[in-house]
Amino acid sequence: MSTPPDLSSLRFNGDGLIPAIIQDADRARDDGKPTGRVLMMAWLNRTALEATLATGFMHYWSRSRQKQWFKGESSGHRQEVVDWYRDCDGDTLLFTVRQTGGACHTGYESCFFQKLNRDGSPTPVEEEPLFDAKAVYAKT
Fold first, then answer.
1. Residue 10 and residue 139: Cα distance in Å, rounded?
2. What would the pLDDT profile of 58-74 be if each residue is shown by its tens digit?
3. Are 1 and 79 a contacting pair, CB within 8 Å?
4. Among 14, 28, 104, 134, which residue is least crowded by beta carbons within 10 Å?
5. What is the pLDDT of residues 92-130, one digit of tens each?
6. Strands in the chain per DSSP E
7. How far apart are CA 58 and CA 48, in angstroms?
8. Whole-angstrom Cα distance, residue 37 to residue 19?
9. Domain coordinates of the chain in residue numbers?
10. From CA 38, how far away is CA 79, in angstroms rounded?
11. Half-sphere exposure of 43 (CA within 13 A, CB side)
12. Per-residue confidence band for 1, with pLDDT thresholds at 50, 70 and 90
């Protein structure tokens, strides 16, 4: 039986949550160095964090659905943890992951696909979705 992780240096907010930035560990430039594209930001509660560390795959807390979820449970687009870090205050986490498929529920590689002008207006999206979100998340 393994020892539970020491999470005492982490500062969960008043709702028992901690934000996590999810970054791609595998995408590489021509020189082979990772680009580190930010894929998404999500929330974890203690149970989701413990499940992530126990399985090696990302689990989150859905604030809208008020339940824990496993990334890829519907789509199959899982996130395998490579490394994880805490910030200097212990109130934000960063995970580098190997992403299977797209990270965004809209079909894009990253949730951050919409570039904005300085005035806040959107620019044309310069990438294509990786998958058809309506087909992947169709209710059966």
1. 37
2. 999 999 999 999 998 88
3. no
4. 14
5. 999 999 999 899 999 999 999 999 999 999 999 999 999
6. 17-24, 38-45, 59-62, 67-70, 79-86, 93-99
7. 8
8. 17
9. 17-136
10. 13
11. 17
12. low
Q: pLDDT for 97-107, tens place per residue?
A: 999 989 999 99
- Strands 17-24 and 93-99, bridge-based pairing: parallel
| Measured distance CA(72)–CA(58) in Å, rounded | 9
DSSP 123: P
Which pair of tokens denotes residue 119? Answer: 């005035």
Encoded tokens for 18:
């901690």
Using DSSP, state whether 134 is helix, strand or coil. helix
Structure tokens at 114: 């919409």
The matching CATH number, chosen from 1.25.40.890, 3.40.50.1400, 3.30.390.50, 3.10.20.810, for 17-136 is: 3.10.20.810
Angle at 130 between CA 35 and CA 127, to 5 degrees: 65
Q: Which residue has the tokens 């299977």?
A: 100
